């Protein structure tokens, strides 16, 4: 089935193979997939609250599946070159990670980056977040979009599509713009560079979004994504995770006088919770329902999270 087809409730159930956590965890069945002390250190560096059981039960089977997909793609390219009797440039495999603000896209993407780079078939795994393609605050202010950060219109979608198209054309050096949660803006003089990665993980709210009806002739970001993952959770949990992250930023990054939200670090916890709750309700929850969750059924795989970020169910497209 075309992975862009949006399913209704009746047929979405039939489009995916569903696994309860325990069934999914069994699919790790491969002796090579053990974690060394160094792996554990690296993974804990990604997020101190990340449980190693979660990595073992959920992300190791997922990285095994992805390794099989990437290897199959590499094999297909080798077949093409054999047929043409000429070698063509190496093109990275693109994995998309989509989902709500604060669902854990960036954490999941970083876990996958760490795990996938352990395989000899694809040691170079680059991670790009689509935040870098948000329009700078100056431009958002001019377009009256500051209260719409993260909505489709707040991104420079053309630049993002050009970026993924360039990766898929085999461009050797990839340069990605960067966004800072500290300055709450694009970093004007900074960028990330990668040289010929084997895999690019593209993480962001908008990875599975399509253009609006009046722009139907446009290309989608997902046209260039080889395998897409949607991370999902109940909206009550998402709000809690957003507020918790906001409080963490308040105690850490926001104490920096250069932080855009520095004033929040001086407020009482109660006031900060009220502000985070308002930002969630008025911006991120609206964006989730209107623009992000409707893209879930385009994903090749859905990770359904429950309390404490535990994945309770995995759905894999047939
Ligand atoms: N697997 C996980 N285990 C524990 N905490 C997590 C996990 N994934 C995300 N978090 C926490 O949830 C919050 C949101 O995660 P983050 O990766 O920043 O989300 P996103 O990139 O989707 O906005 C952060 O505070 C992060 O530490
Ligand atoms: C910059 C973002 C759109 C990116 O989302 P994320 O990487 O956290 O999923 C988001 O963090 C954001 O700033 N949303 C606007 C409202 C707010 O949360 O401040």
From TrEMBL:
Major location (coarse): cytoplasm
Keyword ATP-binding: yes
Coiled coil region boundaries: none
Reaction equations catalysed: (R)-pantothenate + ATP = (R)-4'-phosphopantothenate + ADP + H(+)
Domain Phosphoribulokinase/uridine kinase: 94-247
Family named by the database record: Belongs to the prokaryotic pantothenate kinase family.
Protein's UniProt name: Pantothenate kinase
Source organism of this protein record: Psychromonas aquatilis
Lineage of the species this protein comes from: Bacteria, Pseudomonadati, Pseudomonadota, Gammaproteobacteria, Alteromonadales
